[in-house]
Amino acid sequence: MDLAVKAVDKQAIAGAFGRAASRYDTAAKLQQQTGEYLMELSQAENLGIRVLDAGCGTGFFSARWKQQGKQVIALDLASGMLNHAQEQQVADYYLQGDIEHLGLADNSVDICFSNLAVQWCNELPCALQEFHRVTRPGGLILFSTLAQGSLYELEAAWGQVDTYRHINQFLPLQAITDACQLYRHKIISRQYCEYYPQLLPLLNSLKGIGATHLHHGRQHGLMTRKRLNTLAEAYPRDNEDYPLSYQIAFGVIYCDK
Ligand SMILES: C[S@@+](CC[C@H](N)C(=O)[O-])C[C@H]1O[C@@H](n2cnc3c(N)ncnc32)[C@H](O)[C@@H]1O
Q1: Shortest-distance Cα residue to atom 26 of ligand 1
Q2: For residues 214-232, average pLDDT
Q3: Is the pLDDT of residue 221 over 80?
Q4: How far is the CA of 3 from the centre of ligand 1 (A)?
Q5: Residue range 10-150+168-195+248-255 in CATH 3.40.50.150
Q6: Residue by residue, what is the 3-state secondary structure of 38-80?
Q7: Residue 17 CA, closest ligand 1 atom number
Q8: 57 touches 30 (CB < 8 A)
Q9: How confident is the model at residue 8 (pLDDT cuts 50, 70, 90)?
Q10: Where are the chain's structural domains?
C-alpha cells in the first residue's frame, strides 16, 4: 500500500466534480442535510449581506442564501460546477478559484460559508486562514468537512478484497479542532448514515457527488462483476441494507480581528 502523502491533484478534483455537475443535486442528499444544518448555525440575521459560498458546487446553498436577501459570491475550483451554477443564476458573482488562494480582497465578505469542500484542500489551516482573511472583523465563518471515520464500512470491505487504498483519508476530529485554535470557534460533530439496498447504488452515489477521486493515488482495478460481488460479500450489512457512515465536523469561527 502506498502511504506517501502527496499534494492534492486539484485539476483531477475539478475534473471529477465538473463531470458530476449535471447529476450532482439528485445524488447530494447528505450535502443538502449538512448544508441546511450549517446555515442554521449561522444565526446570521445581523451580519451583513455579503456571502462567499466557497466550494459552491452547483450553488444549491448560494441560492438558499440569495433567497434570504444576501449578495452571494459563488466560488468553485471546477468550471463544470460553476457553469452549472451560473446557468441556474444562483448567485450574484461567479468566481473560479481555489479556497487555499482566494482571489478576494481582505475583509471583503460578512459571511464565509463552505459546505463539504475543505476536505479536498491540501491544508485545512491554510483554507481557514484564507477564509479568515477575506471575512471582515465581526463576520462569521461557517464550514463543514468530512472527518476520520467517514465511509468506514466501505474501507473495511475493500480491506478484505485487496491491499490498495480506495478511500480518502479524512482528518481526525482533533486535527480539525486544532486547525481552529487560532480563532474563537466552536466545533460540532455529527454522524450521518445512509442505507442502500444494493452496493452498486452506494458506489454510484459517491461517483455522483464526485467523491471518488483519491488524494493519494489512483483507483486500483476495474470494477468487474466478480470484484463487485466480492466487495458486496465483504461489506458489513445492517439487516439486508448496506450502510454508509459519514462523520461530519461543523465549524463556526467568529472573526474577532
Ligand atoms: C462535495 S461538493 C459540495 C458542493 C456544495 N458546497 C454543496 O453543498 O452542495 C465539493 C465542492 O468543492 C469544490 N472544491 C474542491 N476543492 C476546492 C478548492 N480547493 N477550492 C474551491 N473549490 C473546491 C469541488 O469542485 C466541489 O464542487
Answers
A1: 57
A2: 77
A3: no
A4: 25
A5: yes
A6: HHHCCCCCCCCCEEEEECCCCCHHHHHHHHCCCEEEEEECCHH
A7: 25
A8: no
A9: confident
A10: 10-150+168-195+248-255
